[in-house]
């Protein structure tokens, strides 16, 4: 049987987030997710998933025509076994592979140069429907899986916070501190923990950045940019 993945989009752009921000990359966005974030910025891979089944050969060929860096994202790409095979094939072809995951699912058969781990905070849980509220809340934070990724691969923690309101930001930063304490993040690794604004409005980004910057100056955590929003706006394929 020919291996395929359900792909929502595949495109070349700049990495807009994380430690490799600004790096030319091919993005392979898998459709399908086991979470339902209230603020999801790619609902066509979660709330209303859609995509086409594409053979791994075609994806490897597509990536070969693009940059060395490849970002496997979603949705939640690690729900699907062929995603692991794709990382191994891309690694064998000489690509640098970032895997963007909510770190709710563990796979030990990956080729991964950077595990971009984005466990979800409490504010991500949707109010409705009730069934998804319960599923999401039960799944969103799995510290055991996060620790396994941190032990196995180079990593970053990319945590979405509400910077648009002072009280909400304080609440989220306190939750982040509890999470990284539970994970045992060393003081020397706090700059691998990025606070990223829950914002797809580039007109608001500057004020959100300023609010997070004030936190980062005293906490040792890192401000997580959203460069693609700054450049392109909230636009698919960027």
Describe the structure.
- There is one protein chain.
- The protein has 238 residues and is an alpha/beta fold.
- It has one domain (4-232): Aldolase class I (TIM Barrel, Alpha-Beta Barrel).
- Helix content is 35%, strand content 21%.
- The chain has seven helices and nine strands.
- The chain has helices spanning 56-64, 81-92, 130-139, 143-152, 166-183, 202-219, 227-232, and strands spanning 4-14, 24-30, 52-55, 69-73, 96-101, 114-117, 155-161, 193-197, 222-223.
- It has a nine-stranded mixed β-sheet.
- α5 links the parallel β7 and β8.
- α1 (56-64) packs parallel to α2 (81-92).
- The protein is globular.
- It starts with a strand and ends in a 6-residue tail after the last helix.
- The model has no long low-confidence stretch (mean pLDDT 97).
Number of helices: 7
Query: Terminal Cα separation, in Å?
Result: 33 Å
Specify the CATH homologous superfamily.
Answer: Aldolase class I
- Strand pairing plus helix content: what structural class? alpha/beta
Main beta sheet:
9 strands, mixed
Radius of gyration: 17 Å
Instruction: List how many beta strands DSSP finds.
Output: 9
What is the helix/strand order?
Answer: EEEHEHEEHHEHEHEH
Which regions have little confidence, pLDDT < 50, spanning 5+ residues? Answer: none
Number of domains: 1
Helical content, roughly? 25-40%
Sheet with most strands: strand arrangement = 3-1-2-4-5-6-7-8-9
The assigned CATH architecture is Alpha-Beta Barrel
Percent strand equals 15-25%
CATH topology type: TIM Barrel
- Mean pLDDT, to the nearest integer, reads 97
- Highest-level CATH class: Alpha Beta
What oligomeric arrangement do these chains adopt? single chain
